[in-house]
Write a sequence for this structure.
């Protein structure tokens, strides 16, 4: 794992957390949207919080795909689950929501899980992989 | 069928977990086939990297499964409480992904990764309550 790859994993975590929070703020400011007026959802796209949240989640998806191109799914998913912790912390200190003791325990468990997985190798070597499902190994020209 | 009953809720959570896991596994499989995106981007630019991803059939299948998962979640939330559906689906997906990644993608899921999946699974369940 290089520093650049850790930065990509960090980008996955940060953009996911900030994207979710940005959408939450935008939708709270907009108020409840009725199913009988779906056009209100389109007007939500024009608000800076919602459009910013969508942009952040697009960056999240691009960096998530990049991480999956050089690391296993069972490495990337736990390693980037710190986003849940980020959302909890942002909810507490930015949105001033209450965090119960059970949620703090959840934060501790996720942090421990991330610690476990990042101590090990990120990638299963390709010669251990069944090419029937994963497809041929294609080198970039 | 009463969609607020236990079996119906279990079926809805099962549908979310199944489609989310299929989405993640298809996308992971596609990205493994595409190869290191950093290198592809350095050689062929952003456009070449985007084309390499979207021309991969398994990526499209994965994206379709992820969309199905999202709509299953929305459907479930209209029949059951978010405090029940979100932790159940969110946490179970970590374990199902580990199982499927081991048996389908043949990833090396050692004791450390199982522990991580279980810890994160329990943590997400507590966090989303």
């Amino acid at each position: 794992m290089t520093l650049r790859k850790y930065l990509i994993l960090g980008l996955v975590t940060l953009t996911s957390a900030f994207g979710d929070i940005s959408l939450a703020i935008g939708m709270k400011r907009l108020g409840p949207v009725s199913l009988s007026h779906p056009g209100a959802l389109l007007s939500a796209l024009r608000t800076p919080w919602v459009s910013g949240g969508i942009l952040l989640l697009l960056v999240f998806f691009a960096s998530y795909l990049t991480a999956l191109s050089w690391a296993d799914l069972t490495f990337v998913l736990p390693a980037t689950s710190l986003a849940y912790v980020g959302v909890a912390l942002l909810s507490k200190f930015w949105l001033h929501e209450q965090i119960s003791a059970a949620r703090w325990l959840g934060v501790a468990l996720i942090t421990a899980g991330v610690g476990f997985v990042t101590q090990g190798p990120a990638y299963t070597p390709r010669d251990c992989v069944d090419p029937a499902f994963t497809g041929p190994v294609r080198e970039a020209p | 069928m009463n969609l607020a009953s236990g079996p119906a809720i279990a079926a809805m959570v099962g549908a979310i977990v199944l489609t989310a896991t299929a989405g993640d596994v298809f996308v992971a499989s596609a990205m493994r086939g595409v190869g290191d995106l950093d290198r592809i981007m350095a050689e062929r630019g952003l456009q070449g990297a985007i084309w390499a991803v979207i021309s991969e059939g398994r990526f499209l299948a994965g994206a379709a499964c992820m969309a199905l998962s999202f709509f299953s979640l929305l459907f479930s939330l209209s029949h059951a409480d978010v405090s029940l559906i979100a932790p159940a689906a969110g946490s179970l997906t970590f374990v199902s992904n580990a199982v499927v990644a081991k048996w389908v993608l043949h990833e090396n899921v050692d004791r450390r990764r199982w522990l991580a999946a279980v810890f994160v699974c329990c943590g997400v369940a507590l966090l989303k309550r």
Summary: Helices of chain B lie at 6-34, 37-54, 57-77, 82-103, 111-127. Chain B touches chain A through 48 residues (CB under 8 Å). Residues 6-34 of chain B form the longest helix (29 residues).
